[in-house]
Amino acid sequence: MKRFLVPVVLAVLLVGSMALASTLEEIKARGKIYIGTDATYPPMEFHDESGEIVGFDIDLGRAIAEELGVEAVFIDTAWDGIFPALDAGKFDIIISSTSITEERLKSKEMSDPYYVTSQAIAVRKDNETIKGPEDLKGKIVAVQIGTTGDLAVSEMEGVTVKRFDTIDKAYMEVLNGRADAVVNDLSEVAYRMKMLPDMKIVATFREGEEKYGVTMRKGDVELLAAINEALRRIKESGKYDEIYRKWFGELGK
Amino acid sequence: MESWGSNVHFDFSALYKALPSLLVGATVTLRITSLSIALGLGIGIVAGLARVWPNTILRTVAGAYIELVRGTPLLVQIFLVYFGLPALGLNLDPFVAGVIAMGINSGAYVGEIVRGGIESIARGQMEAALSLGMTWHQAMYYVILPQAFVRILPPLGNEFIALLKDSSLVSTIAIAELTRTGQIIITRTFKSFEIWSGVALFYFAMTYLISRIVRFSEERLRYSE
């Protein structure tokens, strides 16, 4: 048994020491940055009709990669496994409408905010009882698991929360009459309402408190600095406004 | 602009538009399933033989493997291989992780099928072969296994069909197989009924194909008996 253990331990040490090269150096060396994203979230990240991954975050990711002088490779990942997958080294960063929260900062590095939004409450058109967050008491609210919408309603008293792995299922639940409201980021809800004429937005809350950041593994501080610098330059050069107009038109934030 | 009314109307043009993507997803499902079947067959034959081998250690190890794998959900095994192994320095691509998890899982079931097939051959045959002067290995190879193989085929076919359907679980590690492809299309179109019907049809076409192939080989083997 011991004879077995020695090579195994050596192998683990070897793999471990290879990981000592910083993520930024690795990215530069391979000429590619691997970006995890859950492409089920229009208009931020989704699959278009041809199956291509597109969206605001995707264009932003490409712009960041360009600033770093590398190529962006997007890895489509289910939301409920996206943080474990980052820690497991399946990709270098996450760009997936990820709000910066105290909780996430404990175990991850997050960039400066690149997009600011609120939480929105959407209900069926024929619903007259829900007008604001306080009306959610005693109601069934559908959310996507682990999102800031999920966190927000989970803190509310007397709300029954139904959690789904993708956000479209939450809308479906309301349309099918099995939940009263969807709570999610306004950026996504506003876009979704264009596809769902039988639903409406009744209120927004946590105004301007949803700040999206690029997520990295804890300790990747070199990469964090490089990405913050890239974001700064993208905003200064007008590239950011160009991407914003492409996906949100001239509408307000 | 897509619309979704509470006065439900079905729009199968959404399914028609999705067909090319679903077809690509189905080929991924076929690829991952056939590789897993190959791996599972290899592991399963070894495990099944080990279960009847006249060697206690082999029997115990194979027995432990089978019990452990059959006693835990495939979904948990997939997560363990994909998210868990990187902690030991083994960072696998989703597709490889999926094949390994499904192959190890299927190997346990195939192992039981192989053992069952061998044990279904009357004990008297082994004794007769031994008394004719054959060694245990010869008796197994020339007398028991050829007969067991014919009996193993139908349950093996069931296992392949079950595995093909269970491959939908790898959609959770974002392998763009048939189920995940359907999900992705629905996040954009909201055509749940139409798309899931199409996905179901694709699965059925594939499982039906497997069941025909198994039936065909069964008949061939019967004739050759």
Question: How are the SSEs ordered, and which strands pair?
Answer:
The complex is a heterodimer of chains A (253) and B (225).
Chain A: H1 2-18, H2 23-30, E1 32-37, E2 40-41, E3 45-47, E4 53-54, H3 56-68, E5 71-76, H4 82-87, E6 93-94, H5 102-107, E7 108-110, E8 115-124, E9 140-144, H6 148-155, E10 160-164, H7 167-175, E11 181-185, H8 186-193, E12 199-212, E13 215-217, H9 221-236, H10 239-248
Parallel strand pairs in A: 1-5, 1-6, 9-10, 9-11
Antiparallel strand pairs in A: 2-3, 3-4, 6-13, 7-13, 8-11, 8-12
Helix pairs in contact in A: 3-9, 3-10
Chain B: H1 13-52, H2 56-70, H3 74-84, H4 94-119, H5 123-131, H6 136-166, H7 178-189, H8 192-224
Helix pairs in contact in B: 1-2, 1-4, 1-7, 1-8, 2-4, 3-4, 4-6, 5-6, 6-8, 7-8
The count of β-strands of chain A is 13
For this structure, the CATH topology of the largest domain in chain A is D-Maltodextrin-Binding Protein, domain 2
Q: Please tell me how large the radius of gyration of chain B is.
A: 22 Å
CATH topology-level fold name of chain B: MetI-like fold
Low-confidence parts of chain A: none
Beta-strand percentage of chain B? under 5%
Radius of gyration of chain A: 20 Å
Could you give the distance between the termini of chain B?
62 Å
Largest sheet of chain B: none
Tell me roughly what share of residues is in helical segments of chain A.
25-40%
